[in-house]
């Protein structure tokens, strides 16, 4: 990003944008202070965010303050606007906006090869498809002589859809995933349904204890309507208290919310009013769904027969079993999907990346490519390097413009070709600047050819290139042997011939969620782009000691710069942050669902035991053992579980296949994703129903038969 100096402090902000003068007319709500029509008209103007203004100028008003652009000859910038801090859920974030004229655009041809993002504000009521068609016609008419634009199409996308719905690989910022939100919403709804079903089953399992109460009240004159209203109001009160308790829990866990989800707490507090509305809707829905059926069931029995102890057959057995099947299906699917999520996450983190990140410590030097350091860069880099290599903890050191785990900043289309007569294919090439030690330090594999060397004249004279395997395939070579040693045309400042001296096996510079781009490694020769210093630590050495040595050396060489470091294996894994948080949330959801399922099994066990006490007693009198009775009472649960398992299999397969299809590299769905959840359910049934079943089987038959 731009290297700026304000009040004798140097800043390098990585969240920045170059924009045309009308930027804040398209995004007027972003601007807090300043004129949206003119704040970017002057090439020496700059608009900064509130948090950057506080870093630079403290609490004073930033408007009119001067900032120095250390990379530009015309480097005095005036703060002409103050904008809001970018929200976390935006598809782009910027702490400063500079006029587009300050961006490096040497000519029109280069301009079209750069990647730009265009936003337009349209009037309400505009037919978007019609406007899109008219603009595409104008595009083809304007550039009909340019082969690069043949067949090119503009595609409109609502800005509200970009953060969660865009599948474009090169957005300004990594997007969220609406599918993850859908999955969590479905899981939450399923858990609520399980909870409501459990209440129904638990209430109906207790109905025997309330039959005489209901019967007496019916005999002395209470109407069915009055009794039904009483039971319904009882549940409404329970549901109301539960809703209040749930909201209290939400407020109580807010401090831990970001740790679990990765979403800032401010995003939640801004949605508190929506939370209350949703809670109210769920309260009403739950009251209707779970409060009516138990009340109706209690009123079905004949009060006279009930008072004589003749309860009759249990009504609604099919419905209760069906509800239990639903609970089991939901629990099995949630457990299986959790296994799939964790399996894919583990696979991505351990997948063969063709790079070695173990024991690598990286230090970030944000200003080392800037023009204001031209005269001192080489000497200071050599001093820093030599001092670090004197330590016995550090075995090697490399400098580069990018590191594994973050996007390579330089992306160009139509950058290389075998012949100048070749058509423009608009292939996106990545260009990374490295030194002689980058390839061996990160364990990249040379398929053929050689690495850059310090004693090669063609390397020093910028005549050679090391490229990845996918690059030579995009150039049309049939094999690496055909490509090695060949000259290609490569455009740096202009088209020149360069020789391919080495071909590196494709590696995952980013996670398996990102495509592997054809990459060209350029030798920076200590002239610039040494943004990252990566140190290979000796095996077994304490990382803390190495960090202390690196920080001490840094402060000796660059006392004016802050020291920023990270461990490469941890830094690389940050790409899976959304999956890690998703796994944590889904684990919590699955745990809650299983716990509620346990309550459901307990409720059904109580119900079955209470309704079959006389049958159990008669069987005991006739000689049935406790083990026989336990098998008798448990058989129905296992049948229900097997039915649920058969229903779950296609659901698990379809859901897992759909979710995994979003990853270019993914695990295979194996049989354990189906077997383990079934075993979990069997264990839950054994624990949940075992105690009550044994208790019922051990009761004294005389106590249950004395009324007959």
Question: What does this 3D model show about the protein?
Answer:
This protein is α+β, with helices and mostly antiparallel strands and 708 residues long. 50% of the residues lie in helices and 14% in strands. Strands 1, 2, 3, 4, 5, 6, 7 and 8 form an eight-stranded mixed sheet that branches. Residues 105-113 have low confidence and may be disordered.
What oligomeric state best describes the polypeptide chains here? single chain
> What structural class do helix, strand and pairing data support?
alpha+beta
Q: How does the major sheet shape up?
A: 8 strands, mixed
The low-confidence runs, each spanning 5 or more residues with pLDDT under 50, are 105-113
Query: Approximately what portion of the residues adopt beta-strand conformation?
Result: 5-15%
Summed up, the helix count is: 24
Taking Cα atoms only, what radius of gyration do you get, to the nearest Å? Answer: 34 Å
- The helicity comes to 40-55%
Q: Quote the distance from N terminus to C terminus.
A: 89 Å
Mean pLDDT: 79
